[in-house]
Amino acid sequence: MTTLSAIEENYLKYILQLGEMQNGNVKTNDLAYKLEHSAASVTDMLKRLADKNLVVYKKYYGVSLTKSGLKIAVKILRKHRLWETFLAKKLKFTWDKIHVIAEQLEHVQSDELIDKMDEFLGFPKFDPHGDPIPDKHGNISLPNVVSLADAKMKKQYTLQNVNDDSAAFLKYLNKIQLQLNDKIKIIDKEEFDETIQITINDKKQLTISKDAAKNLFVKSI
Ligand SMILES: [Zn+2]
Hints:
Helix content: 40-55%
Bound molecules: zinc ion
Mean pLDDT: 93
Strand order of the largest sheet: 3-8-4-5-6-7
Number of domains: 3
Largest sheet: 6 strands, antiparallel
Order of helices and strands: HHHEEHHHEEHEEEHE
Structural class: alpha+beta
CATH architecture of the largest domain: Roll
Number of strands: 8
Distance between the termini: 45 Å
CATH class of the largest domain: Mainly Beta
Strand content: 15-25%
CATH superfamily of the largest domain: Ferrous iron transport protein A (FeoA)
Low-confidence stretches: none
């Protein structure tokens, strides 16, 4: 197979990530928004990827990955998340900085490098934001999570993963000292704007906006 450009690889990655929330099918507009490209240029690119048999694109319906498109997309996620782990664990970058660097490193083509790095890191299952890392065969163990905005009141959860797109959001989590695996319980919800009150590890109380809650993913315990 011919090598893909970084832009083509990003399309496959975002179709996978957006599709996870929409049963695999992604609307062209959602993709245009995520990539900050015009709908017309997204359509052009999707036609190109369809010619390469990496996506199935139907006008007005949307786009989904073919088997070979999915294989490539999972591989990019694996590279991205392993690089993030390496940057945080070995080079001591803070978690708000690693995503942007991994966006560049995920396009390095050597499988051997990635497999060796995986071994060097001790085959980690999750990246520093709590996202699952696919193994070299493309297997990925998806944890059963819901966004904190959709979580139930008075139930005990742990913080499993956080959206890593925004450095400002991760800095905010540092500021309020919220960390992965912290125990979270919603004790109150404001009807007006869905702001929630939570306790962390049965001690500290915090107020969380609906926006922030949507970017925090929890697992019930
Ligand atoms: Zn990332």
